Amino acid sequence: MLNYGEDIQTLTRLGLTIHQAEVYLTLAKMEKATIKTLSSISKIDRANLYRIITRLQELNLVEKFLANPTTFKALPVNEGIMLLLERREAEYSEVKAKVKELLKRHKQSSEAVPAEKECQFALIPSGKLTSRKVAEMIDSNLKTHEIIIFWKDFEDQIDHVVAMWTKVLLKGIKARVIVFLEEKEKLPKKIEEFTKYNQFEIRKTQAPPRATISIIDEKEAFLSVTPRLSPGNPGLWMSNPTIVGLIREYFELVWRNSEKLLP
After folding, report:
1. Separation CA 224–CA 236 (nearest Å)
2. Collapsing DSSP states into helix, strand and coil, what is residue 260?
3. What is the CB-side half-sphere exposure of residue 244 using CA atoms within 13 A?
4. Is 32 helix (H, G, I), strand (E, B) or coil?
5. Backbone φ and ψ of 259, nearest 5°
6. pLDDT reported for residue 231
7. Could you tell me which CATH number the domain at 121-260 has?
8. Which residues contact 233 (CB under 8 A, 6 or more apart)?
9. pTM score of the predicted model
């Protein structure tokens, strides 16, 4: 089989298989060819070659000449590519129309089904889903933002933390942060700069907290299921008023027993 490299890749992206593309390009280089000749060049056995040629005929890329022996001729490559492109565009348009119908049905079904009692607890897997949930909480944040963290969990993503807290503070939200620093750990300069916001307070706890916690507007909370927000561990989100109240009481207790970290 001749080596067409990128040409074969292009044709496969237009819907042909590798063998179909190889046979089509080989046949296009020849005026006409029999199955015997194509099999010899392509090293594909005749049974499989017949199936490939039949499919290429169905795609209108190959003509069959009833002679003795039977011969086949390929549509010129420029015309074949245009044909495949048109077919691909038609398929894409069909899929696009079906997607619109699916979204329309989904919207209608969502509106038709009565809302059940609001979920008050959710176990959020680590990774992107955790980041998404935290982002949703920050976007909905209006009044207060209270968190307890192990700084070691956040030191390698300082830019993300700065962007997140800046977004909160620019909305005029009162933010209180309790941080646990391990021996010889220090907050970076970027965090110290938050003291320019009057509504920002940060304190240091001497004892490792029992969980990493975020409390938004005293209405919802997110905490790790272990004392450290370690990779691979899910988090628990909740909006149950009683549980969120208990978590806030724990936060206040730790806050009172913490020392001011920045002037």
Report:
1. 6
2. strand
3. 17
4. coil
5. -110, 145
6. 53
7. 3.30.870.10
8. 126, 224, 225, 226
9. 0.56
Cα separation, 203 vs 219, in Å, equals 22
DSSP character at residue 33: B
The domains of the chain are located at 1-115, 121-260
Query: What is the CA angle 245-249-255, rounded to 5?
Result: 140
Contacts of 247 (CB under 8 A, 6+ apart): 213, 215, 221, 223
Q: Which parts of the chain have pLDDT scores under 50?
A: 1, 115-116, 229
Q: ω before 69 within 30° of 0 (cis)? A: yes
Q: What is the pLDDT of residue 233?
A: 67
| Contact predicate 66/75, CB 8 Å | no
54 Cβ partners below 8 Å, 6+ apart? none
- CATH 1.10.10.10 is the classification of domain 1-115: yes
Phi, psi of 148 (to 5 degrees): -125, 125
In the structure encoding, which two tokens stand for residue 188, read together? 């970076």
Specify the pLDDT at position 116: 47
DSSP-assigned states of every residue in 66-110: -SSS-EEEEPPHHHHHHHHHHHHHHHHHHHHHHHHHHHHHHHHHH
The number of C-alpha atoms within 13 Å of 90 and in the hemisphere containing its C-beta is 7
The answer to whether 260 touches 200, Cβ cutoff 8 Å, is no
Pair of tokens at residue 126 = 């680590």
- The answer for residues whose C-beta is within 8 angstroms of residue 259's C-beta and 6 or more apart is 203, 204, 206
**Number of neighbours of residue 184 by Cβ within 10 angstroms:** 5
Q: Within its chain, how far is the Cα of 228 from the centroid?
A: 25
Angle between helices 18-29 and 6-13 (to 10 degrees): 120
- For residue 51, the one-letter residue type is R
Q: What is the rounded CA–CA span in Å between residue 247 and residue 234?
A: 18
